Amino acid sequence: MISKQKKIGTIIAFVCILAIIVIVIAINNGDKRTAMIVFQKDNQMHFMYASKKEPVQLTEQMYEQGNKLISPTFIVTDNAKKIFYSDNIKDRVYDLYYKDIKKNKSVKVASGVKSYEVSIDGKKVYYISEDALYCYDMKESKKIADKVSRFYISDNGKKVLYITTDSASLYYKNGNKEAKKLATEASVVSHTDNFKQIAYISNGSLYITDAKDKTETIADDVTQYIMYDNKDIIYITSDDYSVTYASIITDSLKGETAPSISSDEYVDYTIRNMVRQQVLEDESLKYEYSVRTLYYYDGKKSEMIKANMGTICDSIIDEKQLVYTTYESMSMPKMDIKVFNEYSGIQYKEDIDNYITNLLLGKPTYNLLIGDTNHSLPIDGTTIKKCVLKNDGSALYYIKDTALCEQKISGRRLKKATEYATNVSVLATYPYAESIVYVKDYDAAKNRGSLYMDDKLVDNEVFIPGESLNYVEINDDCVAYLHNYSYDTDNGTLKYYDGKKATVISENIEYGKYYMLANNQLAYLKDKVLYIADAKNNRKVAENVQTVYRYIYSDDNKKAYYK
Question: What is the value of pTM for the model shown?
Answer without folding.
Answer: 0.87
